[in-house]
Amino acid sequence: MTPLPFTLADWSALEPIAVVGVTGLVVLVVDLLSRSHSQRYVSIGIGAIGGILAGVLAAHQFGHDHNAFFGGFMTGGFTSVFEEIVLLALIGSLILYGAIGPAERIAGTTSLMLWSTCGAMLMAGAANLMTIFLGLELLSLALYCLCGLVDRKTARESALKYLILSSTASGFMLYGMALLFGATGSVMLADFVSPALAGSALFWMGAGMFLIGLSFKLSLVPFHMWAPDVYEGAPLPVTAFMSVATKAATLAVFARFIYAALPSGVAEKLLLPIWIIAGISMIAGNAGMLAQRDLKRLLAYSGIAQVGYILTALAGGTPLGLRYAIFYLTAYTFMNLGAFAVAAALSDDGEQGSRLTNYEGLARRRPWLAAAMTFFLLALAGLPPTAGFLGKILILSSSVSAGYVWMAGLLIAGTAISLYAYAKVIFAMYGRGRHDARDAKPFVPLAWASVAICAVAVIALTFYPLTPSNILPLVK
Amino acid sequence: MLVLASILLPIAGAALLSALPRDDRNVSRAIGTLVAAATFFMVLFAGNQEWSFRWLSRPFVAAFHFGATPVSFWLSLMLALCTVCAIAATKLPRTRGFTAHMLMLEGSMLGLFLTRDLLTFALFWDLMLIPVFFVLVGWSDRPATAWRYLIYNFSAGLLLLLATAAFGIIYGSTDVIGRSDVHLLGSWAPWIFAGFTVAFLVKTPVWPLHTWMPPTYADLPAPMVAVVGAVQSKAGLYGFIAIALAFMPDYLRQYSGLLIALGAISLVYGAAVALVQQDAKRIVAYSSLSHLGLILIAIAVGNTLALQGAMVYIVAHGLFSAALFMLVGYVEEREGTRSLVRLGGLGKTNPRLAGAFCIACLAALGLPGLAGFVGELIILIGVYQAGYVWPAIVTLVSIVLASAYFLRLYQGIMNGPEVEDLPVRHDLTWVEGLAVAPLLAGLVLVGVQPHAILTAFAGIVK
After folding, report:
1. Are the Cβ atoms of A431 and B143 closer than 8 angstroms?
2. How large is the ipTM?
3. Interface touch A389/B123, C-beta < 8 Å
């Protein structure tokens, strides 16, 4: 048997991912061996420690560009940043699961979440088509199970819907990949930049289908129909995880593809439809929020629009735009997790926290939770003093300077619509509601802690705009 | 440092109030008044100190840079004064929360006036909407008003944000307010000017973008409308002076015809509606629309005299409209109504209230010796001197109309036979009297000694 041709450096590139994956196994083994009553916190604790460890390892890789496995996986600033965002989502959702998740099956859920994170992290660093697909499927397969893990009809429906629609997207993507391979004879993103490809119809078709697949995953209008239903049905912590991790991982792939894998002259024409549907998403996503009666659905529609904002930053194809997109994604992670954490603090197994009727008169029952929710919603709408405000101005300036003024205009219009929808929730909390919901839930320390951490992060990001430099090059 | 502290102190005060364990009216009001008074003196003594902290260096330079310019100094001082008076007289339910909102409003508006950076300006522009929105949600009965206020003003704020981003990209820095060497030119400049202008016109407000204003003023509780109507309405005018006039004077001159026309329509329309309204608060609101139109005309005309007049009138209008809103609030508190049809004859039983109300009305209609007259007169001369004869005539007619509706307001409430079924209440208490006294004193002071304010423009007009 010939030895594998990989060096130690190649393997060490996967260290953070390996840590997360192995932690998933440890959680299962510990669950097998122990019969203690505090099982819930043991699993969550091990998972969170694994996540933090992986975060430290990923941080160490920042700035060390290495092309592992012959270009299959690329470490460096870009990869590290996206890995950290995904890990943030993991830790945040694990804490929420610890706070409100059902006690049974906790180990299995934790493991699945960890493995799903592995997939997302793999996508963050994937620099060839096969790694991209591997990461995507690992992420999605675990999520299908996670969606269906509670005994509710809506959860099962959510899982099935997600499975079918996501598979369709994967099919598009795989077909696109096959065509790309046919056109270029390579699976490496780095090989796609050859100028000869600009005239190849096969390449255009392949790239187009690949992008459609990505748009499905990013839930851009008109490929967004799955998102609200799936978000609504899935357990709350899973929704929180899904809303951030899937977007971050897919955006990583998308950014790497459009920044590093398109021959010159192709990008502008090929990507124009993407920018158009991103613009439509900003309007339609925000308009869609207006009719919602469920917080998870509301945040699903909000997510559709937020992806549109992030794509607006990427539209110019400038390095600065990429940095601002990452900034906004980071801010979005905290704002979104914060909103979910408030919902979790109001919930128990039945997830009352996701119904908007439950927020009526909240300001009187739980003034601090109402204030926190208001803060996160205003941040999502982009009001100061939050990272959402700074993110918007950075995105606006990058798109204006790149000449995509029409996208900036749509962003403004979408934001104006969104405020109406967010303010509706705020109004329910502070207005003199006729209907007074039942007594407040007992104090849920874990959920409150994550609310506080997210709020501090959202404010801190406003005054210290962390936009990572040296994230380029994206391929070698 | 003092200037930064003057912005942070009210915000810290609001946080302190929110953390109070019990909602005690007197304690909340005392803390609020003390914080606001301390803020007033900090603004006064901060003078032209500056404080700066770099915020962004890419894609353009932006900083948390605070420091009063001569124009913003007077606005901040007026804001601080109005806030002290308004908080001191608060008698609303849930005083703790309301006072906290008042202080948040003061902090965010001080930030708006004192900042030297356009991006920070845009930040505070949005921030100052939030406390007003919450007061409309929590202290008034009509949700639609809160919506309308928020959507109108936030949309304007977004335009401002977009214009600011474009400004930053083109000029490379937004740390420019108060500098005289910045001129924006090029193919983008008209659009940037348009973005700023529309935002300022909505905020002021000016016809036809004013429709959020009458219900907002009518539904806000008296202490807050005294600050919003008197000072927040100046945010747009301050923007015209500090941003549009300073960095894009050519475009302001080019579109001055349009602005003068809008100002004149607001002037006449506001006066006409104020003449027929029965709701006392709405009369004051529409009179504001009219007076702000006058100031807009002065700024659009843009010669030294008109601008000096505008500055004095900005301060004068702030003082007398705050006083009027507070006094109408007192009347409503006592009699449970503010309809001129139901009210009447209060002067006999409430001489102190009637006296204060009389001074405020006389200042508003432009009696010589009080602040309103100085501003109106200088604006009139300036407009006429610049060769705008028709606007000068329209202005003059409106000033006459102002006398009519303010006298109607005063007579409707204070004169005439006593209305039988109105509850007879006591006259102004000491606290209430002390709360409006500084505003009335300010009106006299500015009326006889406007020089300090007149010179505020020395640096801007070239």
Report:
1. yes
2. 0.88
3. yes
